[in-house]
Fold:
Amino acid sequence: MTVTELKKRNSSGQSSDNGEVNRVELKRTITLLNGVGIIVGSIIGSGIFVSPKGVLDGSGSVGTAILVWLACGLLSLIGALCYAELGTTITRSGGDYAYILEAFGPCLAFLQLWVNLIIIRPTAQAIVALTFAYYALQPFFPSCDPPEAASRLLAALCISILTFINIVSVKAATKIQDSFTIAKLLALLLIIITGLVMICKGEHEYLVNAFEPMDGAKPGVGSVSLAFYSGLFAYAGWNFLNFVTEELIDPYRNLPRAIYISIPIVTFVYVFANVAYFTLVSPREMMLSNAVAVTFAEKVYGVMAWIIPVFVSLSTFGGVNGLLFTSGRLFFVGARQGHLPQLMSMINTKHFTPMPAMLFTGGLSMLMLISNDMYALINYMSFVQWLSVGMSVVGLLYLRWKEPNRDRPIKFNIAIPVAFLIAVIFLLIVPLFAAPKDTGMGLLLVLTGLPVYLIGVCWKSKPRAFTEFVDSLTRTSQKVCMVMSEEHGKN
Structure:
């Protein structure tokens, strides 16, 4: 079978073998629109509504902050182009894990999977769910913060509902992602249009002298670099579609198309939302505000200011859905590779979803809601996340050298991955000086995966009683969840 025929078969879900279309496997049901929804919906969470002050603080002036938002969008687009090449060359789901595995082998890939398993994904999902709960409850508590117990309970309900939906139907999950992505874009469009109206009314005091340093600001290379770090954190999620490549219809065309559409949309709304904020909110007010969009709304919408907290809650609800959807696929791929228990590599025979992996990531996120230290944990992981991205891009360059004749449907000029890698190296150096403790803790958490890898993956001759117990537990769980592996589904 030729490469072209293989691409056509993979894109359509068809096969030359009779009955293979109906085998138990993840189905290609994610359209181009769904792909755009996953990327845009994963990037736009609460950050642009709540806290652009991190970029402003490091930039030192309004004009520099807006340029940083624009530059971060451009850099994210360059990184996404690298991932378009990776995703069409290595068509397995799993994102960074799959690319590191292909280029550098199982040990480094497992360490990347390990930190996502125990820290990055569950804490991110729990924090975004708590943000959803806080803003969903805020209209009922206009003069104070919502009760912490109520916020955690609503966050748990959010995770439970979305986990259930992701188990029952891929199409339902992607429709939720599309709907809430549209909602958050409409909210930002409302802010942008309001800002344009304010400019037309002459409200542009803070934009006229945009590059005038703020009071007490001492902008320099170090502070601006931290502004970039904050801005790029707000763009996180541009590579999430690569986690579900195996379920994307015609990935060779739709993966890069989704990237080309999504990143410019996000960059546009981020830049012009900040312009809109500065029509009414002074730099000092932004630095003191815990939710700049709410401050903006209170100044212009009056009694209708509650609409912004509602939109923030909708935005974060969609963000939780995107995180859960991609996390389940990451752990599914890791289990299929033998790096996690076999049960997590199994698929529900009715809904064709990775049910055990979804239950695991949803359950672990619920447990994280009990912890009071999860915000500290997520701070430790920023360095590790950029390290994973850097390793993936190094893998791209390595595979170009090692396998120059490999089929690459998309291949950009080598200057693009090299330029992005230089930027990533810079982003890895910054926290070594700015936050050495957090960086050290992040690396320490990565290294805790080494003994787990040696015992759980490399040690093949485990005691018979242990393996029999695990096999028995797996069979029982299969019956309860009605799941089986892809290999069994082929028979």
User: Anything to note?
Assistant: Residues 1-20 have pLDDT under 50 and may be disordered. The longest helix spans residues 106-137. The radius of gyration is 23 Å.
